[in-house]
Amino acid sequence: MVVKKKMTLQFYQNLGKLFYAIAAIDGKVSAKEFEKLKLLVKKQWLEIDATEDAFGTDAAYQIEIVFDWLNEAKSLNTKACFDDFINYKKSQSHLFTKEIKGLILKTASAIAYAFAGINKSELTLLATLDIELKIP
């Protein structure tokens, strides 16, 4: 019997932090990066599970909400956002299946490539993410 893991709002919120850190690591977030994130949330993340927020909305939309909030705040540190995600991943490692890790890397890479290809700072952060996701 296969038991499907139930994600939490906090899971999706931390993904929003991670994807913001990827997009903003170079000091700016382009509209293309945000559009790519929204497309991937709709096409891939909504299918992960049926978790909903307090308003009955699919919890996966928390990825967009947190990303947009962080982008509007503009004063938040991308390193802190990335570190928050890594700390969450370490404390909730049971949620990070092989499939989820693959989807995280796919989404992060797509965001990085969305605007004029990938730059050095994005490449470095993606490599760090890849390494962190390989740690059980």
Automatic annotation (TrEMBL):
<dbReference type="InterPro" id="IPR029024">
    <property type="entry name" value="TerB-like"/>
</dbReference>
<protein>
    <recommendedName>
        <fullName>TerB family tellurite resistance protein</fullName>
    </recommendedName>
</protein>
